[in-house]
Amino acid sequence: MARQHIFSRNSTIRGSVAGLGTALLLAVGSVLPAGAVEPVLRVGVVDGAPPCSYRDAGAWRGLAIDLWNRIATREQLPYVVSEWPSVREMLEATRRGSLDVAVGCINVSPDRLERYRFSLPFQEDGLAVMVVQSRLDLGRSFLTALLTPTLLQLLGGYLLAIGVLSLLTWRVEHYGQQAQTLSDGHLRSFSKVFQILATGPGSNTLVSTTRGHGVVLMAYMVRIVSASLLVGYLTVNVAQEVQGSAGGSIRSEEDLRGLRVGVRQGTVSESLLKELNTGGTAAKISIVPLTNIRAGLDLLVTRRIDALLGDNLQLSYLLVHSKAKGIVPSLALQGIRPESQAFAFAPGLPEATAERIDQSISELKRSGLVSNMRQQATEPGSTQGR
Question: pTM for the full model?
Answer without folding.
Answer: 0.66
